[in-house]
Each structure stands twice: as structure tokens, then as C-alpha cells.
Write a structure and sequence with these properties.
13-stranded parallel β-sheet; single chain; 19 strands; 57% strand; mainly beta
Length: 191
């Protein structure tokens, strides 16, 4: 699907949504479909060239505040992939930028997640029990804060960080960068 505004296109299960370069001042809310949201060409018909940078594709929550996932809450048992973009500027009780619910899978390829705040846990990302997170290729998790735990990442599920992933400039009462709880697992490869 072509996209000038993202939320209009979140109703097709299994779809790939291509974004044209620009800033999208939106909160995606709860995504209950399997989707791939990707940097695209100016006409939104195909994926952007591999030389595209996240700085050309920005989803900005504009300081919005929600309960779970300031920009996106990935519903249980769904898989959502983001490729080549920035998600920034939102807050929530849990998961200031992204909340990955039980049984859900979130994948971030060449993405920056920044400027998120959580009143309780997961300033940038919250990964629930039974959820999975995959982060690849120069992804930054930065400038997150949480009132309780996990300024960058609150991890009750499984997270795999591969190839150049950086967590920085985040703070919380416990686990400024990462807070692992319960059966939380963190797998690092070249990060």
C-alpha cells in the first residue's frame, strides 16, 4: 500500500506499507495485523534504495501519551517489522515508543528509536512475557527514561540485538539501559 498517512493503511493483514520520505506526525496505536512498514520511494510503490537513511523517514509521536506504546502497541500474536526509519517523541505508562504485547514479534531493521518516556517501565521499548524483539543493523535506542525500570528497554520476553545495535543515554531507577525481569533473555551478536 502507498502511504502519505500511515494509520489509514493499518487494516490489511500481511501488507507492506511503503512510506515516502518525510515526517509523519502520527501515533499508530494498537496494530492488530501482521505488517511491514518500510521506507519507500517518493511514489510509495517500492522499497527505498539500500542507501536510504532513517533520517529521511520519521514517525513522530509529537509528545503523545498513551497507556501502552506511545507510538505503537503491537497486539498479541502479531508480527510487525519496521525498516529504515526513526520512531520518536512519545510517552506511555509502559513502552514510551513501542509496546510488544504477549506472543507478538517486533523487528527493527536500520531504525532509530529515540526520545521516549514511560511513567513506569520501558522508556523506549517494552517487551512483554512471551514476546520477541529482533533489532538489526545500526539501530540506536537512545534518550529514553522510565520512572521505574528499563530506560531504554524493559525486557520480560526475548530480545536479539544483532550487528551494531547501541543503547545509550537512557535512565531509570533500575536498568537505565536495559532491565531484564522474570524469564527475560537478551542475546547480543556484534552489538
Amino acid at each position: 500500500s502507498a502511504a502519505r498517512t500511515i494509520t489509514v493503511h493499518l487494516d490489511s493483514d500481511g501488507d507492506t506499507i511503503y512510506l515516502s520520505p518525510g515526517t509523519y506526525n502520527e501515533v499508530l496505536g494498537t496494530v492488530d495485523k501482521n505488517l511491514h512498514i518500510s521506507a519507500g520511494t517518493a511514489d510509495c510503490t517500492t522499497a527505498a534504495a539500500t542507501s536510504a537513511t532513517p533520517f529521511d523517514y520519521v514517525i513522530d509521536g509529537g509528545g503523545a501519551s498513551t497507556f501502552n506504546g506511545g507510538i505503537v502497541n503491537i497486539a498479541p500474536n502479531r508480527t510487525v517489522t519496521f525498516t529504515t526509519m526513526i520512531l520518536q517523541n512519545a510517552e506511555a505508562i509502559h513502552g514510551g515508543i513501542v509496546y510488544v504485547d504477549e506472543g507478538a514479534t517486533a523487528t527493527f531493521n536500520k531504525v532509530r528509536l529515540r526520545n521516549g518516556s514511560a511513567d513506569d517501565t520501558g522508556g523506549i521499548l517494552y517487551v512483554a512475557t512471551g514476546a520477541s524483539l529482533f533489532i538489526n543493523d545500526t539501530t540506536f535506542i537512545e534518550n529514553g527514561s522510565a520512572g521505574n525500570a528499563g530506560g531504554g528497554l524493559y525486557l520480560a520476553g526475548v530480545a536479539q540485538l544483532v550487528s551494531g545495535v547501541v543503547i545509550r543515554e537512557s535512565n531509570a531507577l533500575a536498568g537505565g539501559g536495559v532491565a531484564m525481569v522474570g524469564n527475560g533473555q537478551l542475546i547480543l551478536t556484534n552489538s
